[in-house]
Amino acid sequence: MFLIRLVFSPLRIVLFFARIFGYSRMFFFAVGIVVGLFVAPTTGAELRAKLRERIDAASGTGAELTAG
Predict the structure, then answer these.
(1) Per the domain annotation, does 66 fall within a domain?
(2) Cα torsion at 16, 21, 25, 27 (round to 10°)?
(3) Which domain covers residue 17, as residue numbers?
(4) Residue 33: how many CB atoms within 10 A of its CB?
(5) Which of 18, 22, 25, 38 is the most buried if burial means most Cβ atoms within 10 Å?
């Protein structure tokens, strides 16, 4: 019985805070954590370079326009 209560305690705590703060805020908080975990493994310079490449590819401008 103790093991079952120990396993479900974190779930009860999360549901308690979800009721207090609201489910939509908890959802966006969780989305922010997931996005942060996907972005975190890179350094700032690598992330800026990746974002710059994606923006250039999406807008149709290439590096040749910014180089000269």
Answers:
(1) no
(2) 0
(3) 2-60
(4) 10
(5) 18
Phi-psi region of 58 (alpha: psi -120 to 50; beta: other; left: phi over 0): alpha
Which positions ≥6 away from 26 have C-beta within 8 Å?
Answer: 14, 17, 18
CA–CA separation, 46 vs 50, rounded Å?
6
pLDDT digit of tens for each residue in the chain (68 aa)? 777 777 778 888 888 888 888 888 888 888 988 888 887 777 888 888 988 998 999 887 655 555 44
- The answer to whether residue 67 is domain-embedded is no
- Helix, strand and coil in the chain, % to nearest 5: 85, 0, 15
